[in-house]
């Protein structure tokens, strides 16, 4: 993790004095300022800090140190941009997979609200035949949006017991889904 330490007044003055190096770096590498300034400026500021905090670097010119670190930041940026997660193929559902193919939105089934409600009622019906009446009442209250604390006070059952009953229902429900 990066440790961001603010520049001292002396480092700030030095950075301002040599700030032209950033623009020279961008120009020499044919990099658009609006896109790459943010990439290299942090390397430049790190070079200022390193130049002041590491005595052994003083044997080299500051521009050499800054150039190396800005180049390293640029290389790291390019590496991060070539990662698979940044280059995943994006597919639109409005286009087909093939030039003359049918759009995916025509192939994928739409959500039918009525059918979803029917399926949910069917699942609750199946669940009701495998759990107690008390557990079903808790499940229904949970389905209406009540929290465990509210169910506990309404049913006059400890919250821990409500959680145990819901865990049992969950186990039964998973077993029914596998059948």
Write the layout of secondary structure elements.
Elements: H1 9-17, H2 20-28, H3 33-53, H4 62-81, H5 104-107, H6 113-128, H7 133-143, H8 148-155, H9 159-178
Helix pairs in contact: 2-3, 3-4, 7-9
Count of discrete alpha- or pi-helical segments spanning 4 or more residues: 9
Structural class: mainly alpha
Give the assembly state of these chains.
Answer: single chain
Which ranges are low-confidence, i.e. pLDDT below 50, for 5 or more consecutive residues? none
Biggest β-sheet, characterized?
none
- What is the CA-atom radius of gyration, in angstroms? 31 Å
Protein name: Sigma-70 family RNA polymerase sigma factor
How is this structure best described in words?
This is Sigma-70 family RNA polymerase sigma factor. The chain is mostly helical and 179 residues long. The chain has two domains: 9-86, no CATH class; 113-178, Orthogonal Bundle (Arc Repressor Mutant, subunit A), CATH 1.10.10. It contains nine helices and no strands. The protein has helices at residues 9-17, 20-28, 33-53, 62-81, 104-107, 113-128, 133-143, 148-155, 159-178. The longest helix is centred in the N-terminal third of the chain and has 21 residues, at 33-53. The model has no long low-confidence stretch (mean pLDDT 88).
List keywords for this structure.
179 residues; mainly alpha; Arc Repressor Mutant, subunit A; 2 domains; 9 helices; elongated; Sigma-70 family RNA polymerase sigma factor
């Amino acid at each position: 993790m990066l440790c961001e330490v603010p520049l001292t007044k002396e480092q700030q003055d030095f950075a301002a004095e040599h700030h032209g190096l950033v623009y020279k770096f961008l120009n020499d590498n044919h990099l658009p300022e609006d896109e790459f300034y943010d990439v290299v400026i942090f390397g430049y500021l790190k070079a200022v800090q390193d130049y002041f905090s590491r005595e052994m670097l003083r044997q080299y010119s500051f521009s050499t140190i800054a150039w190396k670190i800005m180049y390293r930041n640029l290389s790291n940026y390019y590496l991060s941009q070539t990662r698979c997660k940044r280059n995943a193929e994006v597919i639109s559902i409005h286009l087909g997979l093939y030039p003359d193919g049918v759009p995916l939105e025509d192939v994928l089934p739409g959500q039918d609200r009525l059918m979803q409600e029917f399926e949910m009622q069917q699942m609750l019906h199946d669940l009701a035949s495998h759990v107690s009446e008390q557990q079903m009442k808790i499940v229904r209250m949970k389905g209406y949006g009540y929290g465990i604390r509210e169910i506990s006070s309404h049913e006059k059952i400890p919250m821990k017991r409500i959680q145990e009953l819901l865990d049992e229902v969950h186990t039964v429900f998973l077993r029914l889904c596998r059948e």
